[in-house]
Structures are given as C-alpha cells and as structure tokens.
Amino acid sequence: MDLIITKTLVIPSKEIKWRFSRSSGPGGQNVNKIESRVEIIFNLEDSKVLNDYQKAILKINLKSKLVNNSLCLAVQEHRNQLLNRQLALIKFSSIIRGALNKSSKLRKSTKPTKASQQKRIEFKKKRGKLKKSRQKEKTY
C-alpha cells in the first residue's frame, strides 16, 4: 500500500517499515495479547523517491522528530491495530506534507527608531544613577 503525500510524491510501501507492540492503557483481557500499537519508521537517507532538495528541507523542518535520519511515528489511540495503522498513515503524510510546504520566512533586518534609541539610553542613565546612589561615598 503506497502512501500518497501529494499528486507528484508517492512513497512506496517498501520504504516504510512497520513495527507493532502492545499498547498501554485500557484493553481488558486483550491488553496482554494483542499488539495494537503501531510505529512507522521512514529513513530519509535511503529514500529513492525524495530528491536531495526535499531531503534537505525535511531534515531542516523535522530535525526535532528525526532519529538517526529516520522519521518515527507511534500511534496507539485505538484498541484496533487496523485503525491505528490508518491513523498513522494519515498523520505521517500530513507531517511530511507540512514539512515540505513550510516556507521559512527570513527576518527583514531593520534599524531601531530614534525614539527607541532615546528610550534605551534614558533607561540606562536612570539605571546607572540608581546604582550610583547605592554605592558608598568615596573618601580620599
């Protein structure tokens, strides 16, 4: 089952690794025998679908979510493995789509206004006077 990110980007199922484990939380008698927790692992470096530019953008925008250049996503919201798999695919595709579409806005450098400069200098002078008044009188 291939994962459709955009009209032009489709990740083949062989590039996505699945891992299943027992989910925490309620589940009654099934909690100790059914592996409903789903984990998706997608290695950015080994991907043949993504070009170098897309890989670089994903590395920058997903740097907090990457572990060893792999995007890992775990879902355990439902008691059913199939529902968790579907939800994981939806979340995974939205994360990648959002990271690829995210445009980093560059800060336009500006100069401080005259009023803000004067305000800053007045504050510094006021603060200096306060500190000066706390000092002991110097006697020579």
Summarize the topology:
Layout: E1 3-4, E2 10-11, E3 16-21, E4 37-43, H1 52-61, E5 66-67, E6 70-75, H2 81-101, H3 114-134
> Could you give a short account of the major beta sheet?
4 strands, antiparallel
The structure class reads alpha+beta
Rounded to an integer in angstroms, the radius of gyration calculated over CA atoms is 27 Å
Number of DSSP strand runs: 6
The gross shape turns out to be elongated
Span between termini = 88 Å
Query: Which band does the percent of strand residues land in?
Result: 15-25%
Which spans of ≥5 residues are poorly predicted at pLDDT below 50?
A: none
- Spatial strand order of the main sheet: 3-4-6-5
Q: What is the tally of helical segments?
A: 3
CATH architecture label: 2-Layer Sandwich
Sequence of secondary-structure elements:
EEEEHEEHH
Tell me the domain tally.
1
Mean pLDDT: 86
CATH topology: Double Stranded RNA Binding Domain
Portion in helices:
25-40%
Report the CATH C-level class: Alpha Beta
GO molecular function, one term: ribosome binding
Family: Belongs to the prokaryotic/mitochondrial release factor family.
Protein name: Prokaryotic-type class I peptide chain release factors domain-containing protein
